Amino acid sequence: MFRRSKAADGTATGQVGIRKKSKVPGVMITQFIETLPEGTSHPDFTRKPIALTIQEGKFAFFKAIVTGEPKPTVTWSRNNGDVSDTSRYQTKYDPNSNEHTFEMPNVMPDQADTYKCFATNEYGQAMVTVVLNVIAVGFKKNQPQQPAAEATDGNFKTVLKRKSKIRPKSEQPERKEGEIDPKFWELLLSADKKDYERICAEFGVTDFRWMLKKLNEMKKEREEEQAAFVKNLSNLKPIQVNADGTASFEIDMDLLDPSSSIFLYKDGEMVPYTKELGDKMKHSLKQVGKKYIFSMRDLMPEDAGLYQLDVEDVNMFSTEFKIPMVDFLVKIQEVKAKEREDAVFECVLSNPFSKILWFGKNVPLEQGDKYDIEVSEDKLIHRLVVKDCMVVDKGIYSACAGIKSCNAWLVVEADKDAQKGKKSARKTTRAGGSGMDLQKVAQEQQAKLEKVREERKEQIKAAKEAAAAAPPPETPAAPAPTPAAPSAPKEPKIVDEPAAVAPPAVEVASIEPGITCGLSDIYALRGQPAELNVKMNMDCDGAWFKDGEQLNSGPGVTITKDGTSHKLTITSCRDDDSGLYRFVSGELSTQGKVTIGDVPEFDPDDLHKFSKPVIVRVGQNAAFKMPFAPQESLTISWFKDGTEVKDGGGVKIMKEPNHSRLLLRDCLRTDTGEIKIQLKNPFGAVEATSQLIVLDRPGPPEGPVETVETTSSIIEIKWNPPKDDGGSAVTNYIIERQPTRQNLWTKLGDVSADKTSFRDRNVTHGKKYNYRIYAENPEGLSDALETADSIMAGIMILSGPPGAPKVVSASKTCINLTWTPPEDDKGVPIIGYQLEKRKKDTNQWIALNTLNEPIEGMKYAVKDVTEGAEYEFRVSAINESGAGDPSPPSEMVCAKNPNMRPCFKDPEDFIVVRAGNSVRVKICYEAEPPPQITWLRDDEPISPWINIINTEGMSQLVIPSSKRSDSAIYTIKAKNSMGEASFDIEVRVTDEPKTPGPVELEQTVQGKVVVSWAPSPDQELDDRLCYMVSQHDSNTRVWKTVADRLFTNTYTAINILPGIEYHFRIFAKNDMGLSDPSQSPTWGANSNRVPLSSNGINSTAVCFERPPSILVPLKVHTPPKGYQVFMTCAVRGCPTPSVSWYLNDVCINSDNNYYITNSFGVCSMYILRVRPKDSGEYKVVAVNSFGKAECSTKLIVRD
Fold first, then answer.
1. Nearest CA to 1036 among 999, 1013, 1056, 1062?
2. Which of 102, 273, 775, 1082 is most deeply buried (CB count within 10 A of its CB)?
3. What is the predicted pLDDT for the residue at 804?
4. What is the CATH number of the domain that holds 615?
5. Does 1012 fall in a domain?
6. pTM of the predicted model as reported, rounded to 2 decimal places
7. Residue 27: inside a domain, yes or no?
8. pLDDT category, 965, cuts 50, 70, 90?
9. How many domains does the chain have?
């Protein structure tokens, strides 16, 4: 058995595992992240699988429906095994119903287990468990606990002696008469119990009790031998042909010693193999975990035989590979089907074959809901029906018979008429087939096979007659005595073969009496005569016995002899005539059993009731029931249109002792046909027939739609009735119309079923129309039959040519055109225009719009052009009849911008920048051809460390780290062949102004005070520096501005009143803002106070000047490649220091890859996308007149 598998339902590295509760009981949900993004959700089940208890050999399945955004992935597993075997486990998904299905066809007891269903997306996982119980039926082999493997001596590997009784043909001893072939037991030891009867029939074993008893003993002995090398052995799969033309068998082994030697044998002879699939050897053995897969390629007829797999000297598995002599007379052909239509693959074999293998995309196919596998009565014609084709069904399908195979494509075309988001209706038609009369081919082949069989019988008969007519050789008069071994006493020989045996060998010395045709078991009808015949090779007398009593001719029994033929005739069989009959002639005897009985019968009332047709609608279930009298050895079969139907998929067959039921689920229109039940026993068979009628919408009317008449006022059309009326007569046809270039369909009316034509009288001359026709019956409307092409009312009237297009303007991306309407529109309104272009040096005119999308105006902007290419254009007028004659072509025009003198677009003429920050002057321009750009500083060339970046239509001047000295008038000049243009931009680099000097107050006139102050240190550096004066008095106690934008160092304050204290503040002001204020002395009430003594303490002026210092240093950064980096530090000093950045001691202030700023001492450097070459040591250096300060860090870029 398998060990318990561990389902991986944990979270990945870096994820959290949050348990969530589901609305459906029994569902376990694990959420991988704490907060879900908007519009997403973890997986959950809206329908979970249901526990199932089912009988062995039936079709088991689980169904589940899951939700989640993004859409979850659904997987299945089991606790004690693997579900990767696609022949036993199949997963399917129906996008229409959103159902996930896990199927197990022909379920076996070892598949009983607890199964898990997982639904997983990137945000979580949902898991549910479900139990499958399998009820075993029939004989069960013993499975004792295997003993623990004991340590074995490694020297035994040197010389191996196989414990299997299968030997090469050269070493096989001569078998005695009645001895069973050892191959029989080897096959039984590895076979499933369902194959016991077949194997026994092949080897002529009829005593099942004895066979089962001996088999159990041999199994115990074999399991004890296997336990020395393997822990467990399971999943034995017999050899079979695969879709790729190879043959393989599989076995699951858990070896005690992984180094144990594994041998392969064919008919007792060792087979060399390789463990590499790509090797050129014919045989290979692949190991996947505990699974061992033996494969054989390039199959030939001589590859048939008994294959065995041994571990050391103990056999583990035996399987027989049979290659029937069969070939394909008609191979399957490619099928092109529409969506939701059935597809049919058909083939004809050279010899009868009960079942061939079908594969779809290398996956074995079985009878079920999706596939119908049909076989003709002569077993020559085989058919695969792929029902309800979807786009996902397309691929390669193959048929395998023995070692022969053929394959073909299934192409599924999407239904273009289906409404978006809705499932289209199921179609009742079938696509594909061989395109040949397969029945005729099969009949011809059947006749050939019958002829071959007759010729073979004649040969055997001739051989028998020649052997019987051969004269016995003369016996010598005085034979010399020869030593002979004593012979055992002869016993009567029992001949059980019902068929004619091979002709006896002709002995040289004499011919001994023998039975050439013995008795066999027969079944005779009650009241009918029966004959028992025995033929011998010479004229001999014999006696007949019944149940041990000798028989003589008498009433009801006649015994006759005609030469070598002996016959017993029962004139009218009765129940007491049943028994064991035996013929004895000397020491020879043969026997056979006679059984008397009747053919099954139906009750006339039940037969009449069953013969009534069953009528259902599409999608409904159809049920048939037939009672009968209970009988022994009764075989019940159901047929549809002559093909036997099996239980499974949409077919349910119930067989009870006194009745049988047939249930067809979800019937389709194609299910209409003859339903037949057959009761069969050894005495004969009886059949009852009924009809299944499935009602559906009719098929579409048969096309094409023909135009009977078209004039300026009438359009008459006709069509043919539908091939399939849906089971009920068509009542009427509905006709709809659509004018061309419109989306609206309008119902025109309907006509009765006996009319298949319609006359439309409401038409406009020259206008085109589309028509579609529906057939209607009591079940609904059919699909529509549409006209292939639009139908015009009357003759075609096309407009005259418009005027030649004229070029309004042209650029490298767009050419604007205009034109005039045609002079003659032929009396039909123009609904638009079609524009065409032609590239120079080409002959092809390319339409810029379709006839269904006409240009409504008489101008158009052509944007589909290539820069530098030359084009010409023409235009046609469109009316209801189509596009008229094209206009003359326009002049050739080149897709390029027109030549123009340079001009600047909305430039700024004044820019203020804080000292230390970068200066960026961006100027946009228009010019053709592209101009030459020159920058000047105060009418002189700019410094080399100032960067100039020129792109198409724009030029940019960049000063990475600006200083006050960078203030100037910058001039940009643009010059091309059409002229020259220039523009001046004043750039002022400044900083917040410094505080003005001491303030003095002086009164020269009563009521006026002259306020004067020392100039700010920045006054000489900044010609835009000015001053602002604020005043405060003791009455209002509010500071108010009394003067602004003063370019002098004095101010006269007026309305100065006595007895009130006044205070003044002086601010320096520039483009960056205000400085700190300078306070004036108090003026007013206390200005005449005697100053207080300072007690000898002298005041000292405070100086704020200092060298630079680092307040906040740089930090270490280790970003990944491609990420952004932001470095910052804080610097102070008076006067303001100049800051420079270095990478590995190289200044990067002027490098465009680094964006550097300095805001009030906070120095920052920004890298948009870091590169490996940006790694290194970064250093910030701050310098002023009192000294310098620096700090450094490292940047490490990770891959």
1. 1062
2. 775
3. 93
4. 2.60.40.10
5. no
6. 0.35
7. no
8. confident
9. 10
